[in-house]
Structure to design on (163 residues):
């Protein structure tokens, strides 16, 4: 049973593009459907964390908006951070689901109990993860969450939040 969901940002929660204004301000876009499902996870008792290789004030803002309790930015070894978080939360690797899209996610995805990649992820990740139908930034995190809820038998609880 999955208890902890680990999210990558660029290429998963966002489409992987980074836009800068002429003043040097960074811009990112996030999918509302991902956020909707992430907020519901907390109501169902799941824990969510973001582990990303970049530092961004936009990601900090988004994680606060979604009440994501764990945010790790500027991380080179995502698997080591995930393992330490699991020890803190007394969660086993097989109780972890993770999503990533590129080679810096490889070790984390291989270590996780359930690994997911967006449709447009690196081909090198395909042998170790479930490939989603949606691309990064196009509600692929929502798709992953729905698959986790079904696998955990929580689909009805999720739907009962809204119907």
């Amino acid at each position: 049973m999955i208890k902890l969901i680990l999210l990558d940002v660029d290429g998963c929660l966002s489409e992987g593009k980074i836009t800068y204004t002429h003043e040097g301000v960074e811009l990112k876009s996030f999918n509302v459907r991902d956020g909707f499902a992430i907020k519901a996870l907390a109501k169902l008792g799941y824990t969510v964390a973001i582990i990303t290789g970049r530092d961004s004030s936009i990601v900090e803002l988004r994680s606060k908006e979604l009440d994501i309790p764990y945010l790790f930015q500027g991380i080179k070894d995502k698997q080591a951070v995930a393992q330490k978080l699991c020890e803190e939360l007394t969660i086993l690797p097989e109780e972890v689901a993770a999503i990533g899209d590129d080679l810096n996610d490889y070790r984390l995805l291989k270590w996780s109990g359930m690994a997911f990649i967006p449709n447009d992820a690196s081909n090198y990740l395909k042998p170790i993860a479930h490939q989603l139908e949606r691309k990064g930034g196009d509600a692929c995190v929502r798709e992953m969450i729905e698959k986790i809820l079904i696998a955990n038998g929580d689909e009805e609880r999720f739907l009962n939040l809204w119907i």
